[in-house]
Amino acid sequence: MSKLILNKLKKKASGIIEGRVLKTALILEVRKWPSSTIIEIDLHLPTAVMDGWNEVNYMKCRVADFTYRDYTPSGWDAETQTCTLYIDIDHSGPGTAWAKSLGKGDEINYLSIKTTSQTPVNTSAVICLGDESSLGHLLAMQQLATPAARFSGAVLMGNEHNRSLFTEYFKTPLKPVLRTDVFGHHSLTEWLLQQSYHLENTIFCLTGNSTMVTQLRKILKQQGYSHNQIKAQGFWY
Predict the structure, then answer these.
(1) How far apart are the C-alpha atoms of 41 and 73, rounded to whole Å?
(2) Which architecture does CATH list for 22-115?
(3) Where are the domains of the chain?
(4) From CA 86, how far away is CA 72, in angstroms rounded?
(5) For the chain, what is the largest distance between any 2 Cα atoms, rounded to a whole number of angstroms?
(6) CATH code given to domain 125-235
(7) pLDDT tens track of the chain, all 237 residues?
């Protein structure tokens, strides 16, 4: 059997399987930031049960044939079954191309909603550090942490307008930090070393590109924080 025919059969079989397991969400609104580097997407998820969400979750969205990317629901409302995705599009890739093509009224397909196991339970302080790709994750953690725990942290943003917009638009103690290096770990490390955090009853949530997350974890361990106090979630485009 030729390779072309075999690939067609595989594609057909995969399409049948996807059709049985994929769920559908309706896009209520799409907002592109003026810098054109971040897109907000409001979704209605008719089959999602959000009442029990006590950890940061992610949706495995179908962005192309046999291609999926993970995005974090933020600002969810269990009664209306709605949430918002924040997607960083300041890079090339199938996820970026998919996000740019979406509009109000479109439907998206997702395979599942699963937990990252990041939760603010049993701590008095949650400090989140991330970049533009993890904006949704950071805001989801804030929703879970407050008001029970003190919440703070920083988010890397290379665009000056984005930093200004973030400060004006979001009610959050997260501080926008200028990205001065490619992966951002030097910028966040400099900001982190200027803070005064206590070792006890503190959890750090690190999210964003994998290089930044790995380097920040090393810095925190050098400062005396234990493995259990550092929750890491690296992202790939």
Answers:
(1) 10
(2) Beta Barrel (2.40)
(3) 22-115, 125-235
(4) 8
(5) 66
(6) 3.40.50.80
(7) 555 554 554 455 455 456 568 999 999 999 999 988 999 999 999 999 999 999 999 999 999 988 999 999 999 999 999 999 999 999 889 999 999 999 999 999 999 999 988 888 778 899 999 999 999 999 999 999 988 889 999 999 989 999 999 999 999 999 999 999 989 999 999 999 999 888 888 899 999 999 999 999 999 999 999 998 999 988 765
Measure the CA–CA gap between 158 and 48, rounded to whole angstroms: 34
Taken as a whole, the chain contains a residue count of 237
Structure tokens at 76: 């969810």
Distance CA 165, CA 160 (A): 9
Say how far apart CA 198 and CA 124 lie, in whole Å: 11
- At 200, which amino acid appears? E
Question: Amino acid letter at 123?
Answer: T
